């Protein structure tokens, strides 16, 4: 099985590299995904991208696997990486094109020579039923949640996948790793949730640390950047042009009046990789 590895600000994905990219179809099991993504027992990545050209010819389909074997509805960095892959395979040019995920259809543009990609990510919603968040129907803004005896203020949103933006300011990586999984699996979030720990620097700049559902602590996340930017704009803390800083780098986010989001940032090609069948025969320790 052959892959091309890319990273988007340190958030790395393996793209299945078929000889004919129009026919990228495979059936990956949960165990296979876990082994391929494992940093010690496999190739190592924050996820796997499997895509194909839709039969209609109007868009590309994309399936996103998390390192734990689950699937993600949408990934901003994954979408930018897949767009760069299509560019490298000469399946797209500088004209806008569409990619369909289970979290919705997006429009992407790759800037020559391919190192920067813009994606129209769709429209953010703060409605509890859409995210989803337990309880009565409402916009989930400035609420509190009890995590391990600690009261945290948060807002929640969806841009095709669910996000919890924690408003309590600076958190160390150690605290993100401790609190992140507790929030991800909290009963308030029936489908689990991505978590961002937010710090507002000024009206055009924020900083976040990220715990990603199904992946854990990550250096960068496109959909997390969109969620955090939409929250600070909704709360009146920032204008609509927002630079989102993460441990791996920064993304530029534009929030429109209807809360549709455009994201722009870098993508880097790492190299081609393949995995041998004996890797799947080895039993990883529990």
Could you explain how this protein is built, in words?
The chain has helices spanning 30-37, 76-88, 173-184, 222-234, 278-281, and strands at 2-8, 11-16, 48-53, 60-65, 71-72, 97-101, 104-111, 116-123, 143-147, 150-158, 162-166, 194-202, 205-212, 216-218, 241-246, 249-255, 260-266, 268-274. It has an 18-stranded mixed sheet that branches. With 286 residues, it is an alpha+beta fold. The chain is globular and about 50 Å long. 17% of the residues lie in helices and 40% in strands. The chain has two domains: 2-115 and 268-281, Roll (Diaminopimelate Epimerase, Chain A, domain 1), CATH 3.10.310; 143-262, Diaminopimelate Epimerase, Chain A, domain 1, CATH 3.10.310.
Task: Please give a handful of descriptors for the protein shown.
2 domains; 5 helices; Diaminopimelate Epimerase, Chain A, domain 1; 286 residues; alpha+beta
> Shape, please?
globular
Structural class: alpha+beta
Q: Over all CA atoms, what is the radius of gyration?
A: 18 Å
Question: How many angstroms does the end-to-end distance come to?
Answer: 25 Å
* Residues in helices, as a percent range: 10-25%
DSSP strand count: 18
């Amino acid at each position: 099985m052959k892959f091309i590895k890319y990273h988007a600000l340190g958030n790395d994905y393996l793209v299945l590299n078929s000889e004919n990219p129009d026919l990228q179809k495979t059936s990956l099991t949960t165990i296979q995904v876990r082994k391929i993504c494992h940093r010690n027992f496999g190739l190592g990545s924050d996820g796997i991208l499997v895509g194909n050209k839709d039969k209609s010819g109007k868009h590309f389909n994309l399936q996103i696997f998390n390192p734990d074997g689950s699937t993600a509805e949408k990934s901003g960095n994954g979408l930018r990486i897949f767009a760069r892959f299509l560019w490298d395979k000469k399946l797209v040019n500088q004209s806008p094109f569409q990619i369909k995920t289970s979290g919705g259809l997006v429009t992407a543009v790759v800037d020559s020579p391919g190192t920067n990609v813009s994606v129209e990510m769709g429209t953010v919603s703060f409605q509890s039923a859409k995210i989803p968040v337990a309880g009565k129907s409402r916009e989930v803004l400035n609420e509190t949640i009890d995590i391990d005896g600690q009261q945290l203020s948060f807002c929640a949103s969806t841009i095709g996948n669910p996000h919890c933006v924690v408003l309590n300011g600076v958190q160390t990586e150690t605290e993100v790793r401790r609190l992140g999984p507790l929030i991800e699996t909290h009963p308030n979030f029936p489908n689990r949730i991505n978590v961002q720990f937010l710090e507002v620097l000024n009206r055009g700049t924020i900083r976040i640390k990220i715990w990603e559902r199904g992946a854990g602590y990550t250096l960068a996340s496109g959909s997390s950047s969109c969620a955090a930017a939409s929250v600070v704009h909704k709360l009146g803390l920032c204008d609509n042009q927002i630079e989102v800083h993460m441990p791996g780098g920064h993304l530029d986010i534009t929030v429109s009046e209807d809360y549709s989001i455009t994201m722009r940032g870098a993508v880097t090609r790492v190299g081609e990789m393949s995995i041998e069948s004996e890797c799947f025969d080895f039993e990883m320790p529990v």
